[in-house]
Amino acid sequence: MHTDANLLPIGEVAARLGLATSTLRYWEERGVLQPTARQSGRRLYGPEQLRRIALIQIWQESGMMSLDEIAIVLAGRTETGHWRDTIRGRMAAIDEQIDRLTQAKAYLAHYLSCPRDHPADDCPMVSEEVDAHIRPV
């Protein structure tokens, strides 16, 4: 039993958000999440914390942000930095990844369209790409 009907124990919170309770404990250890209250040593979370957990999940999944980056964004502007710099850095990393994935997709599309039976061995374009990748001694 908990004193406030809006507070949920860690197990319910984890189930509602599809997380392991160990993940929530770890996030608390890392400083990105704090329970609303504790009752008899049990962590209890309110609506604000549920929203924060969902936000952390969204940032990890869609923004591909690390917990360190998330902690900076959640802290806002500090003496040592600004959350906007963290977001700009993450966006630059995502742009680099998009470029690599675009190149990979084009390369794989070539493999599919190559008329050779063994493109890895017989395709002139693949051969040229491989040779360019090998550095002279």
TrEMBL record:
Q: Where is the HTH merR-type domain?
A: 7-76
> What GO terms are given for molecular function?
DNA binding; DNA-binding transcription factor activity
Q: Which Gene3D superfamilies match?
A: 1.10.1660.10
User: Does the record bear 4Fe-4S in its keywords?
Assistant: no
On whether Nucleotidyltransferase is a keyword of this UniProt record, the answer is: no
- Sorted alphabetically, which keywords does the UniProt record give? DNA-binding, Repressor, Transcription, Transcription regulation
User: Which InterPro entries does the UniProt entry name for this protein?
Assistant: DNA-bd_dom_put_sf, MerR-type_HTH_dom, MerR_fam
Q: Output the Pfam families linked to this UniProt entry.
A: MerR_1
This protein's name: DNA-binding transcriptional MerR regulator
| Source organism per UniProt | Streptomyces griseochromogenes
